[in-house]
Design brief:
Blueprint: H1 3-19, H2 21-57, E1 61-65, H3 71-82, E2 87-93, H4 95-105, E3 123-128, H5 134-142, E4 147-151, H6 154-195, H7 198-206, H8 211-251, H9 262-289
Antiparallel strand pairs: 1-3, 1-4, 2-3
Helix pairs in contact: 1-8, 2-6, 2-8, 6-9, 8-9
């Protein structure tokens, strides 16, 4: 394409934005609203995903060491446990610590003052990187010499895995539905703007202009509208997220809800908004103008 044609297309695209100021404003507002709805919902799902991962890390596996092993031998077993790829951390708990923890759980430490710590066994509290591999990891731990018993709560792990799968499927479906709805809304909004230029398009067709030559200025216009909507929506989402984060932090004094700082997801959100705004603007314009090219 010649430079003159490129300049013409850009000028026409920008002119179209300002020529139909109210409709352009409406298209940008609708884009912003749709992006904020999708972005907010996606960020909520992402935070739920992070919270589930944190809860999974609290699903600990207890590894009991052979009672005939000394503390030094028991600690040597820990190095072998930590060598297993899926093991995130293996915390050693001596017999004395186990006795103290047991007494605290019973809320009566004096009652067990005369109890010998040899009644308990040295143990490891093991957390895993991926709880879906718990069964395989536990099987590997059991093969280590000195491991007498392993206690693992598979039902909790399976529950978290099921919840994560349901969350992933639900989020994918809802985001796709919201995206399609947004695309249709933008398409109809841009179509109203193009309706005012139907005679201009018809004249251009009659004098021999190609469909591509007619279509491209509208694509540029759609791109500009999509970019503006994405940029405005991104900064509004940023402000809304920070506001909600500060409010939740103030209300949740027990810190039961974990909110991921926006700085950790800012790149992901920016890229998602830019791509979505581009697709909505360009594809919406292409869908809108198709009807007016049939003259």
């Amino acid at each position: 394409m010649k430079k003159n044609n490129i300049g013409y297309l850009l000028r026409e695209g920008v002119r179209g934005v300002f020529l139909h100021g109210f409709m352009s404003f409406a298209a940008v507002c609708v884009t912003v609203a749709c992006l904020i709805i999708m972005g907010t919902f996606s960020l909520i799902l992402y935070n739920l995903h992070v919270m589930i991962i944190d809860l999974e890390q609290e699903n600990e596996v207890l590894v009991y060491i052979d009672e005939n092993y000394s503390e030094a031998e028991a600690k040597s077993v820990g190095s072998q446990i930590n060598m297993i790829s899926n093991v995130l951390n293996a915390k050693f708990v001596s017999r004395e610590e186990a006795l103290q923890d047991f007494a605290k759980e019973q809320n009566n430490s004096t009652l067990f003052n005369g109890l010998d710590s040899d009644t308990f066994r040295d143990r490891y509290v093991v957390t895993m990187e991926d709880n879906s591999l718990m069964q395989k990891t536990v099987d590997e731990i059991r093969k280590i010499d000195g491991v007498a018993e392993v206690t693992a709560h598979y039902e909790i792990s399976n529950g978290f895995q099921t919840l994560q799968k349901v969350l992933n499927i639900a989020s994918m479906i809802i985001i796709i539905v919201l995206f399609v709805v947004s695309l249709l809304i933008i398409s109809n909004t841009v179509k109203l703007a193009m309706y005012d230029r139907r005679e201009e398009i018809a004249i251009m067709k009659m004098v021999g202009a190609t469909n591509s030559f007619i279509r491209l200025p509208f694509v540029v216009e759609g791109f500009i509208l999509g970019f503006l909507g994405a940029a405005i929506g991104f900064f509004l989402e940023w402000g809304l997220y920070d506001f909600l984060e500060s409010k939740i932090t103030t209300i949740d004094t027990l810190q039961l809800i974990t909110i991921v700082p926006f700085g950790e997801v800012i790149e992901m959100v920016a890229i998602a908004y830019a791509l979505t705004g581009f697709i909505i603007g360009v594809v919406g314009s292409l869908l809108s103008i198709r009807k007016f090219l049939k003259v």
